[in-house]
Amino acid sequence: MTTPENTGKECPAQALLKLLAGKWKPELFKLAVAGPMRFNSLLRQINGANKQSLSVALKELETAGLLDKITVSEKPLHIEYHLSEKGKALVPIFEQLEGMA
Fold it and tell me: Measured between alpha carbons, how far is 39 from 97 in angstroms, rounded to an integer?
């Protein structure tokens, strides 16, 4: 999927699909749209997920700039994952895709 203007470059839609490719990433993204996520809560919500695969998927989404990782210093100390501004910008696209299914 290339156009004459970006020959040799990856199509933006293709890049987005590669970014969210993986077993847990689409589900994590959808859960992040609903609100802040905590790791242990995600383990309970996503059937079949294990700590390692979930950790890798979260890290990849964070590295891609779709999630922000925030350490909450209230007791008990914990980490929350929130949708970043870049991630929020993708929400309308996913809502449109869900409407097509």
Answer: 27
pTM: 0.80
CATH assignment of the domain containing 17: 1.10.10.10
d(CA 32, CA 47): 16
Q: Which residues in the chain land under pLDDT 50?
A: 1-2
Sign of the CA dihedral running 36, 98, 17, 3: negative
Distance CA 17, CA 91 (A): 14
* Residue-number span of the structural domain to which 89 is assigned: 4-100
**pLDDT at position 8:** 61
Question: For residues 39 and 29, what is the distance between their CA atoms, to the nearest angstrom?
Answer: 13
